[in-house]
Amino acid sequence: MKYQFLIVLALFLISSKLEAQEISPFEAQGPPIDSLFPEFSYLTISGDSVDLKLLKEKVVVINIWFVGCKGCKQEEPYLKKITESHQDDSEVVFLGFCMSKPDKIIKYLEKNGEIGYQDISLSRDEVLERFDVVMSPTHFVIKAGVLKAKYTGPIIPETKSLEWLSAEINKWKN
Question: What value does the mean pLDDT of the chain take?
């Protein structure tokens, strides 16, 4: 019951922020808007190399999540719609920073299906230390190595966050 109350409270705060264009308490997560995003170079769970330095000309969308996260599961069909709408768009890259072990991520994706993100396994400690994130899901939109937008909470139509993410991606494309 306490968990459900916290989810409802979080969704209320998020939707209030989007409607009133005010800063919610969740905005404190991650680097400040218009600051350089921490550089990274990782291997995806499928073995592909991803380096932020090589993505400077692209819009990079990052979703920080973990297997078992209720809000992360809730947003999956909507994130899949967004990635599908950009599947032929070479200007946009979708990365998932998953705070779960690679074998657990692979098993989860085999059971539930891919959503179009290149997933990278990171420890919770690394996500906290490098990206200053404690809550999931958290989303970042990066252009030219600079954080342009961020959002903590599930990307769902009820909070208008789905519209927000689509608009942010399109705003930062060349």
Answer: 88
